[in-house]
Amino acid sequence: MNWSFFELSCPALSGISGSIVGVMSVGCFVGALLAGQAGDRFSRKYSIVLFSVIFVISGALQAGSMDLFTLLLSRLIAGISVGALSMIVPVYQSEISTKEIRGRLLSFQQWAITIGIAVSFWTNYGTEKYLASSSASWRIPLGLQIVPAFVLAVGILFFPFSPRWLMANDRENEALHVLLKIRSSSSQRNILTEFNEIKQEITLEREQSVQSYSQLFRFPLRRRLILGIGIQILQQLTGINSIMYYAPEIFKQAGLSGQNAALLATGINGCVNVLATIPAILFLDKWGRRPVLIVGALLMSFSMFSIGSIMGVHGYTLHNTTANTIEVIIPSQTASYIIILFVYIFVSAFAFSWGPTTWLYCAEIFPLSMRAKGTSLTTAAIWATNCLISFLVPVLLESITYGTYLIFGTLCFIMAILSFLFYPETKGRSLEDMDFVFGSSIFVISQNKKQINPCVEQQIYHVTTF
Description:
- The protein is mainly alpha-helical and 466 residues long.
- It contains 21 helices and two strands.
- It has helices spanning 4-9, 17-42, 44-63, 68-96, 102-130, 136-144, 146-155, 163-168, 172-182, 188-207, 222-237, 240-245, 247-253, 259-287, 289-314, 333-352, 354-364, 368-399, 403-422, 434-437, 454-457; strands at residues 316-320, 325-329.
- A two-stranded antiparallel ribbon has the order 1-2.
- A hairpin with a 4-residue loop joins strand 1 (316-320) and strand 2 (325-329).
- The longest helix is centred in the C-terminal third of the chain and has 32 residues, at 368-399.
């Protein structure tokens, strides 16, 4: 994105590009924490409307910014709405879906996000190529953010309330009406069974006074909170946002010359991201969460190690005294193309695995009364880590260059081990069954595989070892 307008009025901007990216992540962290209370009090539906409107306002402020302060402030406000929506939307989706298609439905959200990323990449490429000399090169991309936010704010008004939220607020008749409407293909008996399961879960939670944030840090929710926060932090430690935020610079490191060439490769990267998410939509409910997390982490680890190793063997660093930066030069064109190929493999591995699965996992593991609050904390964790990465990666890329990729490769391998040891499978289980999925040993490989009668499950509260 061309920031020449601000470079004229604020020469220091070129040195704080990480701040322009990072300030939005700070807002996302705050927004995720606010969204928990808003989602419970105002409903999932109206909270989505509220934060979408906030984003529309922030988008207008960003596009019309006349100084750096206004830009940073509007980015912070935009971050608050993005953080809130990134938490509320998955919760809403998980509560209106059936257990058979919950993974597919939440994967659609990730797919939509990848489409948005791809559109932003190509928009930046077009404006940089044809409007580089004008402030329109960055005002247009920022202004276009308003369109999807406005569509969401208006469109969600035609959607039903979450039936689970309605029942938690003693609006059972409305909840049953919504279930009959959104489960029109199911038999009335199955709908009534689901209705009674939700009702029993609410009754149980009220008897145990499960309602405040403090409950998340106690038995039996503590384990789920740790796993939820852990999986979101680990998602950011894959290095995906270092690829997405700083892709042009990475492709330059890989040997592409010229800003337009790097942006073009980044646009292609966005398309790869979109296409690679499709398998998650089609097969996540069939494959399960655990295998996808493990395989995805191993593929990402291999890709990052390959990128770092090839760059370390074939590249050399050059100190640019004029710009006071460290550049990586790779004379071998073949090595450059192989690095770019592994970047695309890495993005593909993330897109079908850790991209959609982490959001799905956190949206389905908490009980109804704590779902919004629990998901708000896990979402805040991802944005806090995102912020850290956005500030840290530019420093790492300049100081240790190829070593950055070796660090991320190591972290991805550790993620595969952690997923194998600690994260139980949630595929095919209703939201009301999660007490029992997480009711045994913290080590997944030692959990009892015996199936429990669903009718009995509602009467039992397992004791966990954590």
